[in-house]
Amino acid sequence: MENGDPIIEVIKEITSEQVLLYAEASGDFNPIHVNKEFAENSQFGRNIAHGMMIAATISESMSLTFGESWHHSGKVKIRFRSPAYPGDTVTTSGQIQKMIASEEGTEIKCSVLVTNQTGETLISGNSSVIISS
Amino acid sequence: MDSKKPQSSSHIPNGNHFDRINYAELEVGAVVSHQSYTLDRESVKKYVSAVKDTSAHPKTNTVDPAPPMSIAALSLRGVVNDLKIPGGTLHIGQELVFLKPVNVGTHLECTAILSSNSVRREFRFIVVDLNVRDDLNDYVMKGKSTIMLPVDISG
After folding, report:
1. DSSP secondary structure letter of residue B65
2. Do the beta carbons of residue B8 and residue B31 sit within 8 Å?
3. Yes or no, beta carbons of A12 and B52 under 8 Å apart
4. Using CB atoms, which residue from B43, B94, B98 is nearest to A78?
5. What is the pLDDT of residue A28?
6. Across-strand partners of B118?
7. CA–CA separation, A104 and A5 (whole Å)
């Protein structure tokens, strides 16, 4: 691994059924996600997916790329820039930005980005993981 | 994820289950949520199905790890419920640190402490620090969530 290398890309199609399932799994029944009428009268005009449901693709990508180290030492700092809607296809990508060696191992810092099918940024931020030496 | 009864929500202003919270009264440093959960297999399965996570690590005799983000979702569940987050609230930022793998079946204590409460233009910005400990009292996850509520519904 070296600077500039990509992390494993994750692509998901977001469905209304998935949003409802996530509401049940997370206990977050905010009407902006699950109530059609409420969402139609909101600034978004329709239901949006939970931000954390979309952010889960970042964790998936980091876990696929770095394995169990992500569970022990993963860090992520993200901003939710725009919502994902049912019907969207989201793509999660990122790149290794820096690798820092220490007694613990090598800390790998990455940029992370989630975009929709038009290329709009939904989530941006950074993540890191320590690979034990 | 079996939820047990809230243990310390009485310090939330007007925070019983029948009143709306006046978010302007929330003070920095207040424990805004404290919930206990057992991370049961059925709930983890539901979570994995919802996010279509393909990164699951194989179960062995000694480990049966849950996706780290399922722990984050669990800790946020307490915040959403105990703070009675109203419709129209937006989640705008999230920081997470995963400190230890969590196996299915682990008992977790999730605590959220208010670290910032401010108003800018028509929105209230609330930041909570999240801490999750396992049944060995080890921290398994820490985090920081930023949410944005319209002032007209948040006081």
Report:
1. B
2. yes
3. yes
4. B94
5. 92
6. B125
7. 22
Cross-chain CB nearest to B46 (options A21, A50, A75):
A21
State ipTM.
0.94
Token reading at B108: 């977790």
Backbone phi, psi, residue A101, to 5°: -85, 140
Q: Which amino acid is at B100?
A: K
CA distance B152 to B155: 6
According to DSSP, residue A69 is labeled H
Which residues have C-beta within 8 Å of that of residue A87, sequence separation ≥ 6?
A13, A14, A15
B93: tokens are 């930022």
Q: Which residues of B touch A22 (CB under 8 A)?
A: 47, 50-51
> pLDDT digit string (tens) for B45-64?
999 999 999 987 666 666 78
**Which residues have C-beta within 8 Å of that of residue A43, sequence separation ≥ 6?**
none
For residues B89-127, one letter each, b for 16 or more C-beta atoms within 10 angstroms of the residue's C-beta and e for the rest, the string is: bbbbbbbbbbbbbbebebebbbbbbbeebeeeeebbbbb
The C-alpha atoms of residue A59 and residue A75 are separated, in whole angstroms, by: 9
